Amino acid sequence: MSTPVLEVKNLKKYFPIQSGFLKTRQGDVKAVDDISFTIQEGQTLGLVGESGCGKTTAGRTILRLTDATDGQVLYKGKDVFKASKKEMMELRQQMQIVFQDPYSSLNPRMTIGEIIGEALVEHKLYKKGSELTDRVTEILELCGMARYHINRYPHEFSGGQRQRIGIARALALNPSFIVGDEPVSALDVSIQAQVINLMKDLQQKLGLSYLFISHDLSVVKHISDRVGVMYLGSLVELADKKDLYDTPKHPYTQALLSAIPVPDPKKKTKRIILQGDIPSAANPPSGCKFHTRCPYAKEICKAEVPVFKNMGSNHFVACHLVDQF
Amino acid sequence: MGKNLIEVKGLKTYFYTKKGVIKAVDGVDFAIQSGKTLGIVGESGCGKSITSMSIMGLVPAPHGKIEGGEIFFEDRDLLKLSEEEMRKIRGNDISMIFQEPMTSLNPVFTIGDQITEVLILHQKLDKAQATKKAMDMLTLVGIARAEKIVKEYPHQLSGGMRQRVMIAMALSCMPKLLIADEPTTALDVTIQAQILELMNGLKERLDTAIMLITHDLGVIAEMADHVVVMYAGKVVEDASVEELFENPKHPYTLGLLNSKPNMSVEKDRLENIPGVVPNPIQLPEGCYFHPRCKYATDKCRQAQPELKEYTSGHKVSCFMVHKEV
Amino acid sequence: MLKYICRRLLHMIPVVIIMSICIFGIMKMAPGDGVGYNLSPKATPEQKVAERKRLGYDRPVYEQYLRWVGRTVQGDLGDSSIYKQPVSRIIRPFIWNSFKLNVVCFLFSYLISIPLGIICAVKQYSKWDNFWSVFSTFGISMPGFFFALLLIYLFSVKIPLFPINGMQTPGLNASGMTAALDQLNHMVLPAIVIVIGGLAGLLRYTRTSMLEVIKQDYIRTARSKGLKEKVVIYKHAFRNALIPIITMIGFEIPALFSGFVILETIFLWPGIGKILMDAIYRRDYNLVMALNLFFATLTLLGNLLADIGYAAVDPRIKVE
Amino acid sequence: MKIEIKKPTLSALQEDKEAVIGPWKMIWIRLRENKMALTGLIIMGVIIFISVFAPFLTPYDPYQYDFGITFQAPSMKHWLGTDEMGRDYLTRILYGGRISMQVGLFSVTVAIGLGALIGGISGYYGGWIDNILMRVGEVISSLPFMPFAITISAVLGARVKEEHKLYLIMIIIGTLSWPGLARLIRGQILSLREQEFMQAATALGISDRKKIVKHLLPNTYGYLIVNATLGMAGAIMSESALSFLGLGVAPPVPTWGNLILYARDMYTLMYRPWLWVPPGICIFLAVLSINLIGDALRDAVDPKSNR
Predict the structure, then answer these.
(1) What does the pLDDT look like over D94-128, one tens digit per residue?
(2) Which chain D residue shows the shortest CA-CA distance from C303?
(3) Angle value at C-alpha A111, between A108 and A113, nearest 5 degrees
């Protein structure tokens, strides 16, 4: 184990629900509700969960794109939420993000060169001129694009190429930690593979650490070293990839894994089908949030919030009944 | 071998745009037997959705036009039927469910209204009978409290519930063929599992043939009996599901299978298909796949391969496979 | 539904307050002290001061405002200097006259433009659609008053089909049917101007919102059910397209009244538009204020009606 | 034999020969392809030309009266005749165009300036500022436009010098028509603020000022231009209507609106159509051409057609 790049401690992000004439606060949507994890240098932590589980909000809160409600994020020991404006500028060089939507993530009124070079100028690393162009070219080529793309506009590129540009933009400042917020979800399968390979290559070449957010368990399995599973704002399980996929301990993880259609017609295994819908995050169930859909739920699950405890070899699970599995 | 319920022969659907002709479907052949499921796989823009719209007779006029081919449904060529006759088939003998459950239901009518509408139209039921039947259908697709749901509006339901409603609506006239266009793509994994299980169960109970369009090979393996792989408006491979997954022949099929991370096999790199799907207005000469094919030869660049039998029941469209190079 | 209406009404309160301040403020800026008309021109300065005191004009502005609001709420809008009568009594027949012309035109333009807009959307890019598109572009570009003048010139002067202006033939001492027909005859030209102006805008609007709806997924669903194209368009699509159209109607009601100001002046139609102009030319500020208040109330009422119509058509509104 | 494609940028390579098409150029190309817009542009071009070069196109002075030749019918010497003071009417129309277009342009500038500023502040900062500004906008847009414009113009007009009435009209039209625009810009900014490229800019540490100037504003220009165009059509209409009622720009300064005022004289209306039809046609053509351009622009800047 090397040093942790990122430590997330008890992170909370609540969005107030306002309504009525005077916009009074009616309650909170607990988008991220007390999650903790660490990411080691050069490693990838995958964060999986279904829509509305708070994984995207978690990624953005960690980068301080929105203010956290509570909790701590340490980047190489530095408290991100307490950083001053100047310190934050330095941290921004270290921590970057790649987005899901290849269309809305690039400003349609800027050329590719401007998109990638903007931050280099802003951080006073380069002045406008040939050196900047060279640096932008270098990054573009690193991402499988070419120099002549510099003067083009985003609308001239396909989804996959746009995603490469998005990655190039994130890499421009030479960061060491990147949040990938569903970076391949909007792409076709064959293009997905290209982008995943690119991200893996870049990780090896540049020693990057990733927080890889996705709803696709097979993609996460491929790219991650450690995987966390989220449900309604909470982490329910966090373990090394092999442990999590081979011996999932939380009933939700088990159901999630068994729900994935396997591209092999001979392996038609009996799957666990969860009943009902994902409850609203504005009004989550009491106790263990999963109890309404859990096939094993007991009385205790409705009453008490389970502890997120280490079951050995850093395999964390939040379930009252974990010892019975 | 059962009898073919529907047989598509040499279907060509073109779109006439300002920039040129888009051959969205360019000579497609396949057949579906009664009670069986045919999977159609391909990436965005391969013409799979347009194929289904062609069968339904809903190619958007005036830009889109069916330029050739035959679609035999129970010995009648659908392309030769009048609009009046076609309408009697739509929603009655052939019905359809779509990818976006959130937008596929009319927001200003109740669920009950929308289901009974089909029943009153095709089955000539009166309002009370139709409502009763609608509730039965909702119960059949696993919706509890059907009598309450019929009075609700689509926005009051979750995505999974809406897709169930769509299925109930599509199946209410006991169609012989159900076309499902990416029915689970917009849904979460656990909800997808619910819907797939539901569809499999209903297929057995109602003896409905299904034409399942998807980009997800996992879903295909799970659901289909037979598979057609499409690329740039053409069928490149056609085989039974076991044969296709065990013995894929076309380089594109191979590429697709390999570019998706596999849950059971650990790989360091994904094998990807380089390049992007060709621009439908400027399709390459020869085999449409050759610019992305690592086996491409001069012949592939000049001539178009035909879809020919490789072994019994397994057709491939590739010079290399047929050893014609 | 009732709760929804109450909420909308509650929402309107601050708007009404600010609006009344605006109206009051503007009138306060009017030149002259507004004392003149009740007194003879020979009034002594002492008499003027007394009159000012009687009207409360020596009080601070906010107090005057509150008093004005108080009186207005009780229905006392002051006296008109032209007619030497309480404003609230004299404007009633004028409102009725405007209303007559308005309702006729309003219904007409809606009855024509909505179906036309739908057909245009369904037959997008056809010759029919192109014709009406050009028509409506011309229609919205034509200044109403100029169009009115042209009509008078063509159909009253050159070919004397209709009366040039007024609401009834002077000296005609008829009643019943004859009088009604006479009035109808006077209404034709102004009605044409209003209907064509309204039609152009509404036709465009209906067409655009219909086109937007036709692209939606649920229309594809409706077609895939085997429904007749008529049912798809007039039931499934139209009901959805109606939502923006209703909003438009809410805005249109007061806009029609607004446009009247000019047309009534040209056609000498004795409605509120015309007396607004008379009042302005002759500086009858109580009347001006009352009419503005009336127009503003009407606008708010239009908005409220639109909100209600909105909620009636769109089931998604109620739960919010 | 095997052919390896090293970089997945083949199709981009093929496109390389094409020139780079920026977003503005794309709008221009779309506009040029639209026949209606082209017609509008040509009409507008002619109107602007004659307004700008009016002094060179006519030998007469618009204010030079000659009571010897009042109310003459059109002739070779005076193409559109003369008015009640013997001024050449065509000259007055040419100069009137100048004023009408100016009023239109300035009113729209006022409206756009206020609308963009207020909408921008509302959208970017949100919270109570947004609440108050939008409420005020709501009130103003609830005021019935014409009666209010008339009332304000009459009330304030009496306190303003005749030659300054021009500016009063511009300000009245401008201040009464900003709310719709402000609401639009606000909505636009709210949705832009949520766009991922704005988040990316934050993540890259781009300063607030640059985020607004380089990322937010350029993406609203398209909407601004469309609305400015359509707003100008409305402003020209409003000015002409006010002037026609005698509550706008006052003679002797000629505008198309107050030139039609002659038609309120029954005799002129009936027997001297050349004194009121030409300015009416001018207004119609100006508004029509602007509407044509505006409609085409709206389609051209639509981001949906970018995909």
Answers:
(1) 888 888 888 899 999 999 889 888 988 888 887 78
(2) D142
(3) 140
